[in-house]
Design goal:
The chain is α/β, with parallel strands linked by helices. Helices cover 33% and strands 22% of the residues. The chain folds into 3 domains: 86 residues, 3-Layer(aba) Sandwich (Rossmann fold), CATH 3.40.50.720; 207 residues, UDP-N-acetylmuramoyl-L-alanine:D-glutamate ligase (3-Layer(aba) Sandwich), CATH 3.40.1190; 135 residues, Alpha-Beta Complex (Protein-Tyrosine Phosphatase, Chain A). The protein is built from 17 helices and 20 strands. It is globular.
Length: 454
């Protein structure tokens, strides 16, 4: 176990993760320095949460106090290419993530889930199945919202941590080793942070880095980038496919999810019992069901948990049904083109689509093709609105059906003017929200509030 008492540890980034890490380290007797580029007036909420703890602060910059630390714990939102980290590496100061720190202080078994899309749904569903199966204490944490460091206490060797892990968190692991790793899919995202698709893939691939022959990897057989990541995996590999019959693993066959291993075969669930829309959600359910099945959880418990499952908000969330049978869907969590494509393809109704947001240099080419085939009206807002308009036009989408809005209120008003009986009004931005909102949740809430006034 890592020794913390009297160790000088700098936390870089006073986010939700930074606050949780500071609390843990302070209780463990470490000498904690908290550093953030924001100044105190912009960190009132975070500093209030840490009131009463003996902490040293370095705010407005990362400087000499933090560079005098024995160890640096970096919050996931802080990019690793800033000059401060170059100086820290030159001084030989170890730099780790919060999930790496947490790993050293838990006896619980770890199921870690990564991928470009579907992580939160899959993580939540695995957690619910395990909790219903009562196979020990089960905690759900990580990128899903609750820092892992908050959930590691009071867990024994028969207990489970179900952890959503992002590429940002995996960049700075050292020993972090899941018992079971899931790599759901891989498409371009976060290129503003990782600079290249290769760097992004290498960060994701690290989920398998420390696993051994005793561990398991569950991977998407239909995704070449995912399969390439487990080429030299030493443990047991189980595959998930929506296109092929895989063995060992789980396949979509005749609208059923079927497990196969050698000569054994069992139907885990009929897809008509899955309450979530879209083929991508069938795939998410397949990963969760396979994980539970490999842990020996009875099939009936798996089925019941899936039937009862409700996804977190803003993920193809049905908001309401307006007059004239107009369905309103909030998919604000679709923060990249691939996620938006999956949302768009989940509906057969004519679509009035709201899209656009922060520009992170994403490639919208495939999104444009799908929009041309699936949407009737396109309303664009945010930093990317003109870029996405050009992509839609190049794909053959009629200019007369493309509208530009300066804010969500205007976007919803334009959409309302173009709705016809039986349409689906879909918010699926294909972009992050940070150009106009603090989070995709805030974006989704404003959309929902506005459409409920129609």
């Amino acid at each position: 176990m890592m020794e913390l008492k009297n160790k000088k540890i700098a936390i870089i980034g006073l986010s939700r993760t930074g606050v949780a890490t500071a609390e843990f380290l302070s209780r463990a007797g470490a000498r904690v320095i908290v550093s953030d580029t924001k100044t105190a007036p912009f960190l009132e909420k975070e500093m209030e949460a840490l009131k009463g703890l003996e902490l040293d602060y370095e705010l407005g910059y990362h400087g000499e106090k933090s560079l005098a630390a024995d160890l640096i714990v970096v919050s996931p939102g802080v990019p690793l290419d800033i000059p401060f980290f170059k100086k820290a590496r030159e001084k030989g100061i170890p730099i780790i993530s919060e999930i790496e720190l947490a790993y050293h202080f838990t006896e619980g078994k770890i199921i870690a889930i990564t991928g470009t899309n579907g992580k939160t749904t899959t993580t939540s569903l695995i957690g619910e199945i395990l909790q219903k199966a009562q196979i020990g204490k089960v905690k759900v944490a990580g990128n899903i919202g609750t820092p892992l460091i908050r959930e590691i206490g009071d867990l024994g060797q028969d207990d489970w941590l179900v952890v959503e892990v992002s590429s940002f968190q995996l960049e700075t692991i050292v020993d972090f080793k899941p018992d079971i790793s899931l790599f759901l899919n891989f498409t371009a995202d976060h290129l503003d942070r990782h600079k290249s698709l290769e760097n992004y893939w290498l960060a994701k691939k690290r989920i398998f880095e420390n696993q051994t022959s005793r561990d398991m990897a569950l991977v998407n057989f239909d995704d070449q980038d995912v399969m390439k990541a487990v080429k030299d995996f030493p443990g047991r590999i189980y595959q998930v496919s929506m296109d092929k019959k895989v063995n060992p693993g789980i396949s979509l066959v005749d609208n059923k999810l079927v497990f196969r291993a050698e000569d054994r075969e069992e139907v885990l669930i009929n897809c008509t019992d899955i309450p979530l829309p879209g083929l991508h959600n069938i795939q998410n359910v397949a990963f969760a069901a396979l994980t539970a099945y490999l842990l020996g959880i009875p099939v009936e418990i798996i089925r019941n948990a899936i039937r009862d499952f409700k996804a977190a908000g803003h993920r193809l969330e049905e908001v309401c049904l307006l007059e004239n049978n107009i369905l309103v869907i909030d998919d604000s969590k679709a923060t990249n083109p691939d996620a938006a494509i999956k949302g768009i393809e989940s509906f057969t109704r004519p679509l009035v689509l709201l899209a656009g947001g922060q520009d992170r240099n994403a490639d919208f080419t495939e999104w444009g093709r799908v929009v041309r085939e699936r949407a009737r009206v396109l309303v664009l807002l945010g930093e990317t609105r003109y870029k996405m308009r050009e992509v839609a036009l190049k794909s053959g989408f009629p200019n007369i059906n493309i509208h530009i809005a300066d804010n969500m209120k205007e976007a919803v008003e334009i959409a309302a003017q173009n709705l016809k009986p039986g349409d689906c009004l879909l918010l699926s931005p294909a972009c992050p929200s940070w150009d106009m909102y603090k989070s995709y949740q805030e974006r989704g809430r404003e959309f929902q509030d506005l459409v409920k006034t129609l």
